[in-house]
Design a protein that fits this description.
Helix content: 25-40%
Number of strands: 2
Radius of gyration: 12 Å
Order of helices and strands: HEEH
Strand order of the largest sheet: 1-2
Number of helices: 2
Largest sheet: 2 strands, antiparallel
Amino acid sequence: MSAHFNGHPSNVTQLVKDVIVFANKHGLYVTSTTDGTHSSTSYHYQGRAVDVAAPMTADGIKKMRHFQRLCVGKFPQAA
C-alpha cells in the first residue's frame, strides 16, 4: 500500500486510501496527503483529503478529467 502514496504520509482514512488506489490505477499519483501547505481548516490535516495529479500533457489532462468523472459515481460519499 505504501507505494501508492508516492512518499507521502499514509495516515489517512480508508476512503482516502481507496481513492488513492483508484487514482493510481488510472495513471495518477499522489502529490499531498497530510503533508504540504493547506489552509488551517483543511481536511488534509485530518487525513480526509488527498491531492492527485497527472503529467501536464494532453494525455495526462485527459486521464485527470476521466478520473474526476469516475470518482463522482464511485465515491459519492466524498462529495
